Amino acid sequence: VFLPAAPVLGILTFASTMLVVVSVTGTILTAAGKPRWTLTLTVPLIPLAILGHIIMVPRFGAIGAASVTAVFASLAAFGSLGAVYRLWHILPPAGTFGRSLFVSAVAYLVAVGWLASGFIVIVKLALIGLLIAASYLVLREFTDRELALARTVGWRIFPLEFLSR
Fold it and tell me: Which residues, 6 or more positions from 75, have their beta carbon under 8 angstroms from its beta carbon?
């Protein structure tokens, strides 16, 4: 029943990831006393995104709307990353970026390859979420401090002790 929404969901999942980057970088800039930088980077994108939707939605429907959202979310994310770099001279680690691309590709392939309907869709999404978390654990993306924090809040899905360095 939901199969026609799959391409739109894929694009919007990417867009939401970019919006998480905007959120994190916006928090960094605000904490550094530069909240206006975030506004300066993102507010001009709003009328451009509206224009993009006006142009793309009649031609491409939901795919057009999702694509415009993804493009402008990406512009905001890369602009915000540039602002953080300008302020602190730091970028996300290249290894983290590469591992994230790999994990995302695997999760996407599993999601596309596993056809599900009804309640099984919820099970599918939950298992893919666990696959993503397990992949980051196996790839040692989490620091010892992050793992310790996870232990203190009671996250015991995986036996994290084997990841001690």
Answer: 45
Give residue 33's Cα distance to chain centre: 25
As to burial, measured by CB atoms within 10 angstroms (0-12 exposed, 13-18 middle, 19+ buried), residue 117 is exposed
Please give the model's pTM, rounded to 2 decimal places.
0.73
Cα first-last separation, the chain:
46
Using CA atoms, how far apart are residues 162 and 88, in angstroms rounded to an integer? 35
Cα 148 from chain centroid (whole Å)? 23
SS3 139: coil
Q: Contacts for 132-135 with beta carbons within 8 Å, 24 or more apart? A: 132/103, 132/107, 133/157, 133/158, 134/158, 135/102, 135/103, 135/106, 135/107
Q: Which residues make Cβ contacts (< 8 Å) with residue 123, sequence separation at least 6?
A: 116
pLDDT digit string (tens) for 25-56? 999 999 999 999 999 999 999 999 999 999 99
Q: Nearest Cα to 18, choosing from 85, 64, 60, 81?
A: 81
Q: Is 162 exposed, middle or buried (0-12, 13-18, 19+ CB in 10 A)?
A: exposed
- 148 pLDDT tier (thresholds 50, 70, 90): confident
